[in-house]
Amino acid sequence: MQRKLSSHFPLSKLAIQEGIEDLASLIQFTQQLPYGRNKNRADLNLVLAEKKGTCSSKHAFIKKIAEENSWTDIELLIGIYKMNHLNTPKIGSTLTDNGFDFIPEAHCYLKIGNQRIDITNVNSSFENVKNDILEEHQINSTQVNTFKVEIHQNF
Fold it and tell me: Which pTM does this prediction carry?
């Protein structure tokens, strides 16, 4: 089943103006955007306007469009995982130099039906962290702004 975006909703309308017509093209477009922090975490329009995003903003952007289009089987998740040299090679020496096997890290991703997907960048895959998840929380698109930070700090 192909899921078309409705032009009756603000964020969906902006996506359609970018040539994004359905869920598959939305995921592909968003995944290919460069990684980078947006000027305002709470403004998901900036993913399109600035043509970049983080794991939080990119996944929340898709979740917000899902909410607009009543796609109820798309969930936004925050997972606290054991970030280590295997799932995040660039931090390997920093961890070992400081005597750590891992540090807990918060990461956003989507669950569509029964499948978890990570569209942070073209090389991202939930498979890289799935065995290292310590806890998981379902949130709505507006909660990535502060709630993700709270969950991470509380952990």
Answer: 0.91
Among residues 137, 20, 2, 42, the alpha carbon closest in space to that of 33 is found at: 20
Report how far apart, in Å, the C-alpha atoms of 47 and of each of 21, 43, 61, 134 are: 17, 8, 7, 28
Beta strands across the sheet bearing 115-117: 115-117, 103-112, 74-83, 133-139
Start-end of H helices in 1-155: 10-17, 23-32, 45-49, 55-68, 92-97, 147-154
Least Cα distance to 30 among 106, 125, 122 occurs for 122
Q: Are 80 and 133 a contacting pair, CB within 8 Å?
A: yes
pLDDT in tens, 97-141: 899 999 999 999 999 999 999 999 999 999 999 999 999 999 999
Please give the pLDDT value at position 110: 98
Query: Which two structure tokens, joined as six digits, stand for 22?
Result: 């359905």
